Amino acid sequence: MNHDSIANPNFQLWNPLCHTNGTKARCRFDVTSPEFLGINKGDSALLSGFLESLDICFGELEHWTVDRFASPYFAYDPTASDWRDLFGLAWRITLSITDVSRYRDCGKFGPYPANGLDSTWLDEQSPTVKEEEKCVIIATEGPSREFTELTDTPIGGEIETLTFKLPHADIMQARVNLGVINLPDSAAAVREILYRSKVGFMTTHWSDAFERSAWQKTPQWVTTA
Questions:
Q1: What residue spans define the domains of the chain?
Q2: At the N or C end, where does the chain have fewer CB atoms within 10 A?
Q3: b (16+ CB within 10 A) / e for 107-145
């Protein structure tokens, strides 16, 4: 897919990672909406469209999960004093794919533009951040390639490390799941985590990660046949 062909996307896809096992694949990525649209359970048309927009795996979509969360990584302005500007709303999508014919590594962290609508979305659901949300800190590696500053946060959390095989280098990223928290009450603790990340020269906002993962060259396809 030509990503430039979507002039006004209503969704943006980030941080795609695809693991394959024979002709099966598991792809995970984040989704945000510049148009303040939302995702509930998701449907096959929307998620098949996302997979096409990522352009990293060809196969049949079998099933999926959708996990709503808030993160400073997608914030409008994480340096602002208002807690609403500290957190951006996103959805973590996991796709299970069968009959994979070819796949490749991602070429960048994002954004990958996409269009669609979720037929399962309910009007009473909020397309903006609420006070009580699951919170995830996303941090891209610094020069040390370690995340020791994030292993013991002021409000706990479980850390997961991922490796993205970009065309120019393998880049590590940590995701700290803080669980469902009260965002206004936890804003100071979250800012402390972001400060620790900055001390370790990590990047915790999409704009910085975007600069690090600009296209170097198109990744090569791998066929399963």
A1: 8-218
A2: C
A3: bbbbbbbbbbebeebeeeeeeebeeebebbbbbbbbeee
